[in-house]
Each structure stands twice: as C-alpha cells, then as structure tokens.
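Dear Dr. V.,

Thank you for agreeing to look over these. As mentioned in my earlier message, I'm a first-year student in the group and I'm still getting used to reading structure tokens, so any feedback on how I've presented them would be very welcome. I ran two proteins. I've put each sequence directly above its structure. The first is here:
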Amino acid sequence: MPPQNAGVATATPAVPTGGTVETTAGAGTATTGTETGGTAADPRRTEPHPDALLGARVSGIARDGDAALLTFAPDDGPALRLALPTAFRLARGERTLLADEDLTAPRDHGPAGPFEDCATRYDARALALNAVLSAVRPAVREVAALPDGGLRLGWGTSFRLEVPGPPASTVTTWRLTRLS
C-alpha cells in the first residue's frame, strides 16, 4: 500500500522560509519541478517565488479540509493556487472577510437544508466573496514575502491577505502551487 502522500512532493525548509512553491501536473497525482525554500548549500533548491502572483487575477476561494485555498489566474501560464493550512486573515479595508477560525466556526444562521449541516462560516462567506471576485476580477498589486516567513498580498483597491510567519522552522504556513 503506497504511503498517504505518494506522488506529492513536500520539503521541510532548512531555514524558516514560510512557504513552498510546487508545480503540480494533473489533479494532484504527480508533482514535477518542485521549488522549495532552501539554503545556499543546496543549489537545486531555490527560495519561494510568491512574486509570480503579481498581476494575476484572483479567481476564487475554496477550502480543502482545514486549509483555505485561493486560486489566481495569471495573464500567461498556468493557474496558481495558494494553500493556507494555518493562520491567515483576509480583509477589505478594516473589515475582516475571512480568517482561519471561520474554517471551523458554525454558520451565523441555521442551515437551509439537510446537506448544509456541516457548512461553516467560511463556506458561507467564501460563496459570497466568490460572487464579488467573479464580477470584479481584481489583480494582485502587492506581494511581500516577510522576513519571518509570512506572506502579505494586496489586490483590487482594498483587499489584503495576511499570513503570519510560522511558529517553528518545520511548519509551512503557505504553499504556492502551479496548476496544469
């Protein structure tokens, strides 16, 4: 029986870099051309390239279990997906739209049907936010990889994503993947 993570390239950075960049082929079944945060001692490994998001359109927000997923559509090349398995805050102006605690918080109102019993506050807010994003199609205008391994993005006129640095060097707080 293959291990649970077979076919997925992962790496623990030798230096706290906060995130990784991967190139994924197909539906997550194979990974090629992985670039992860590394050190000068290993020239095959390079620093993450979150600046690939600059100018890309924000095309959607979803989730995968307890991880938030943001998808970006650059003008050329494959789509990019940013996975946030730990703390994050998405705001517009001073108002928080989504945060990591929304992934597990119950909806603000009662479920409308039997299949919505498991829906969270994140699910309801992401649905509304996706409607705004599809109408506006904002482009990423600010990308900052923080010294502590965190990440800060800005798009449109006032959207801001903040991902704090990891609490330990073995934790990945974000992962950028090229979808093909």
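The second protein is here, in the same arrangement:
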Amino acid sequence: MALVGLLGWLIDSAIAMRVEAKISSAVEESADLATSPAVYVGGVPYVTALLTGEIPQVTVTSLDINVEDLGIVNARTEINRVHVTPQQALSGDLYGAPGELFKRTVSLDGVAFGQLLGITDLDISNPYDISPAGGVASEAKLTGTPKGFEDKVTVVVDLRLESPTFHMRVREVQDAPAGREQEAADAFTFSMDTRRLPLSSQASNVSVSAGSIVFETQRQNIVVRPGDLAPLDTGDAADEDSSAWRDKTEAGELPAATTR
C-alpha cells in the first residue's frame, strides 16, 4: 500500500508540475517577463480538481522585476477557487475559467521605496514586535539619510489609503539631529496615487512585510484572462478591469507622487 501511495503521489506531483510549467511559460510570454515566474497550483492531491472542477489556488510570483519609475519590485498574483473543466485542469490553460477571488500585490523594498523618497539607504521594518495586520492603514519604522542630512534619521510613520491615494505621514521622530525634527519629518512625508502602481486597480490594502511596503488590490468573481495571471498589470488599455497604469502615467493623467 505504501508503494502504491508513493506512486500516486509522484504521478500527482508530476501532473501539477507540468501544469505549473505551462502556466509559467504562458505568463512569461504574454507579460514579456525577463525570466519565468514561479507558479503554484494548490490542491492536495492536485488531480482532485478533475473531480471537483475547482483548483483551490493559483499563484504567480516574480522577483526583482524592473519597473519604470519604481525600480526593482517583487510581485505576486493569486486567484482563489478557479472553476475548471477536466481539460483545463490537465492543460493549465485557465483562460475563460471563473475565479472567485483575485489578488495582486506589489512589494517595494528599501531600495525601491527609497528611490521615491530620494533616500538611497532606506531601511523598512515593523515598528513593534508584531507585524501590523494591514488594511487601509498600517505603520512602519523607517531609517535612512534624507538629502541634506549627514546622519541617519529614524521615524515611525502611518501608512494610509484614502480612495486611490496612499499617504505616509510621520507619527514620531525617534532619532534626528536636534532642532531638525520637523525637517526630518518632512523628508518622510509622502503621497502617491496607487493607480501609478502596476496593479489591476487602485490599492485596497497596505502592509509591511519582510522589509518592504506591500500594496494589494482585490477583485471578486472574475473570468481569467491572460493579463490576470501576470504578476504585474500589463497596462492593456483594452482591458476594462486594468488600470492601464503605464498609458495613464505616460499621458500625465495621474497625479505625480509628492514629498513635502
């Protein structure tokens, strides 16, 4: 029995890996990525999707993507409860399949977010021992050397989403040269229209994780299209659910990011 179980596990793993490889190849080509993204199809065993008609989760992750005006970012797309035919479950061709929940995240580490602030040595961390849960508001501890300063400054900031706009405001200046606290706070005050990010729509969640500020958007009850599986929004202006971020940014239709 153990041998039969092991054989079944190996066959199931091989089928899942083949599906993941096919999705990865298709996304790499359609999204014009420099490297193949990592793909995971959920369900243990995976072949139960042939009977249930549902893949519990599909995730596509790309690391170190160079995005114009942002720098290097990490990106992830997740679609939950994808309803598929047996043929789709085996082929990995999910286009046209209904999905119940779509999530896309873009993570900006200290280098990428520091580029927006003009701070080249920015460090991002959680201000407390436990990670903020995230949502429309969160908090972060930032350390770096703003322009005009010789030594590093440390502040605790509030991160807040107000409609499409992300606001970062200093709650506490923990370490700064005496008499320059307000100047330090101004250097870490920042606003940005989140439709500038390569998400599928404006951000609905902001959090801090693994030294990065993470923006997330969600949609419910989608029909999977090529752009949905890409880790970044492709900016396809013909897609009514896409932010078409690149076209809008280049056309000057979105407000510029601002620091105080």
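From my reading of the second output: DSSP finds seven helices and twelve strands in the chain. The CA atoms of residues 63 and 184 lie 32 Å apart. Does that match how you would interpret it?

Kind regards,
E.
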